[in-house]
Predict the 3D structure of the following.
Amino acid sequence: MSFMRFAYSLLWVLATPLLLLRLLWRARRQPEYLRHVAERFGYYRGASNAGPWIWVHAVSVGETRAAAPLVRALQARYRQHRILLTHMTPTGRETGAALFGDSVLQCYLPYDQPCAVARFFEHFRPVAGVLIETEVWPNLIHAAAARDIPLYLVNARLSARSQAGYRRSGALARDALRALAGITAQTEDDAARLRELGAPAVTVTGNLKFDIEVPTDQVAAGRELRAGLGARPVLVAASTRDGEEALLLDAVQRGGLGDALLVIVPRHPQRFDAVAALVAAHGLRMQRRSAAEVIVADTAVLLGDTLGEMYFYYAACDVALLGGSFLPYGAQNLIEACALGKPVIVGPSTYNFAEAADAAVTAGAALRAADFKEALKMALQLARDVDRRRAMAQAGLAFTESYRGATQRVLECLRLPEHR
């Protein structure tokens, strides 16, 4: 073990009390953080011999959704194997359960402590592993290599900001990247940044999220809600992040909504109540999606306080405002909205999905706004312009269709042993 990795490992071990305190802190809003705590340190219940296992790690909700087409493709191709799906957040775990049910085994990936990682591999003994997007854990990667377990980083994305952070770790990140069995990246820019960090070979395969299957039940339910609202324009602020809702509601107070319904869907469920309080503080009538009530005429805001229903919200709207892009969070995924033919308005911060956002704007499927004031004005105009919305819808469908196929390209890069 190099000195850098020894120091890194020591810090992880010394941080154990802080890790436990962090779980307690998060559990104030999400009690689920206190469930399965032992798994985070590499202790697992139940038999581990039900495999052989192909292990897929999807840290949270976005990565789990991105993993869906790949998990199903692996299940179809390697029928004699089972899928072990690991996460780091309760919402990721809940999303995995909703998507796959009992067809996969789920647990938390342990913290990157040498002993915890060793216990994980000894318990499950996977034949291979797949890390979704940018999950570079040096001890995990080196432990897999030491056991001759091929470990792949797929659907990788790396912004310039994240690259700078990894660059500061020096040999730690470089050695981890070189120990991987293979890397596939979403774009040429992502691949170039990974190569600059020391990755020996990176294949560009596109973004798995373009291959996600649209859940027809959610779409049908969303369209039913939209039909029930009649002529009222419906705007959805999708996957909003901390601070964005206040800016959006300020813009609503200054410019008004007219008779439009604004649907706000916070990215993180622990913030549902805080956003509800913000809406009340702005003097707007609100209903909650979780109450499953008929939307009354004087309701200005519908709070999307449910999990795993993003396609429902998109299907119910006329125009989508993309959360995470109006403050420097780098944006959330706009592909789902485009795949349903919904016009998208993005803010100035899209570095996490730079190529997809630029391509959607170029294709005519999305518009850029400087802030929520401009975005709200654009959205209300679009909502009343049927012809322009129809043109943007067609552009969005063509845009998403043209980028499909990443799943098959990733599969071709994986060299998974049949048995172990």
